[in-house]
Amino acid sequence: MDRILPLGVVYVCCSTALALALPNDVLARYEWARYASYAVAVLIPSIKQYAALSRFPEVTALYLAVSWISVIVLVAALWRALDFSLERAVAKAGPGNMSAFTLGPIVLLAGFVFVLFDAPSKQEMTSTDTGLQLIVARMVSESRFALGLLGGWIFLAVAIMIVVSVKALIASWRAVLRDRFTTNRKGNQ
Fold it and tell me: What angle do CA 131, 21, 74 make, to 5 degrees?
């Protein structure tokens, strides 16, 4: 758990530096950037939507593509860093209370993914609504610094939620299987 904060700070600093350092015409200038951005945008359509809303569309498109790719690396790094004892928490709750360990993290992760996959429209961006998604979208579409800083924390949170969700599911499955195995063994004796 001690390694998460330094990892998070380094990731957000790199994320902010990336958003600030990319040239405005990065996709026109670099063919590899155009291909990478397009490939990830095929899987995650909100990249095109956020790029269309931004004052710096090419930077936003490449930044979001790189960020989604980095989530894979972050999950691998956080897997070891988030080595807390879900096993004990699951064992204490008992196999009958697994819904909190399986449903809670999945619902939270779904919320993060919804925010990142579903971009607001141009009409919503000009409205006076104050939903969290619109506030974040307005900030990142106007400022490269906000894009790097907020984007870094959001993608870090997504990676953490993926790790926590998967580890919670594994721990709850182990507890249920252990309980069933123990019950079956006692019944056979």
Answer: 65
